[in-house]
Amino acid sequence: FVFFELSPQIEGNAFLEWFNGDTWVSYIYVYEPESVLELGIRPAFVANAARNPEVPEGYHFRPPTDSLIGRIPMEFQKMVTTINGIHPNELAKTIIPEGPSKLNLTQDFRDPNVILGPDGKWKMILGSRDSQGGVILLYGTDDPTAQSGWHFLNVLYRDNRLGMTVAECSGLAPIDGNPQDPNTLWALIYAQLNSTDPATGRRDITTVHVGKFDGITFTPMFEQEMDFGTHAYAFQALYSQELGTLTIAWLANWKDWNWDTKPDFPTSMTLPRKLVLSADRKVLLMNEKIFKN
User: Fold this and answer.
1) Fewer CB atoms inside 10 A, N or C side of the chain?
2) What PANTHER family has UniProt attached to this entry (predicted)?
3) DSSP secondary structure letters along 253-270
4) Range of the domain at 36
């Protein structure tokens, strides 16, 4: 596919046409910069040859636009730079074409979480699995722009408890100070995919390990369950000196999902949190007064 962007700079209705003899258009998407965060990017035209099959309850992106069929490897890492957080500078490019070859991992190699490490270099945490259970991988780069030079550094953590498979949506965040401070403690958070809690029967438990991170190795000090919510997808965290560490995850346990709850499925369980350590640095506390309407 060839990507073109057109900014007509007009008000009111617009009419766009092309000549099929020398131009073949697959998709046209539209958005307004001032409202894209609220209204999103919307499909305005899809050619008949590129239309999705008539599948009830189907998602918008399927072959030929976003297929998992035929990818070798199935999962790899790409990035795109933007002008203003919305406009891409260029098409996305592959920065890590495949996972580490000598660890006998499955094709699971996903959910990149990029942070600035204690050594001032960019790190990427990725979830995978082997024959025993979940594996969390650490990658790094010396490139201050994070656009090149990504390479495998270490297996950050392994977990095979409760019948889990992939360490899903893993993330690492500083929780009680500047990430450049060697005394700062870090939280390693992930969902234990396919796990089952024997006490409650809940599936896909979300756990957090608190410990020290030197840029290469994570040394856990204690662990606790991340509240009662399970399966924290798309985990993101942001640290600032003023606010501390804020986190958000889309909590949606697919094992408990049913059609009756589907209308509220995408957003009803999105959960913001602030990570706060106890005075003795031995437990994470729940802070209920952080987020206001």
Assistant:
1) C
2) BETA-FRUCTOSIDASE (PTHR43101:SF1)
3) -GGG--GGGGGGTTTTTE
4) 1-61
Residue 293 is predicted with a pLDDT of 43
Instruction: Indicate whether 123 and 199 sit together in one domain.
Output: yes
Q: How many domains in the chain?
A: 2
Would 27 be classed as within a structural domain?
Answer: yes
The single residue listed with the structure tokens 């995850």 is 249
> Would you say 210 and 175 are in contact if contact means Cβ atoms under 8 Å apart?
yes
Residue 67's pLDDT is 47
Q: Specify the residue for token string 């495949």.
A: 98
Q: Which of 128, 191, 127 is nearest to 161 (CA)?
A: 191
* pLDDT value of position 291: 47
- 279: domain CATH number is 2.115.10.20
What is the per-residue pLDDT across 269-285, written as a single tens digit (0 to 9) for each?
566 788 889 999 999 88
Could you give the CA distance from residue 272 to residue 269 in angstroms, rounded to a whole number? 10
Q: Is residue 234 part of a domain?
A: yes
Q: What pLDDT was estimated at residue 1? A: 57
The two beta strands, 27-30 and 42-46, are antiparallel
Residues of the chain with pLDDT under 50: 59, 63-64, 67-70, 288-289, 291-293
Supply 133's token pair.
């259970």
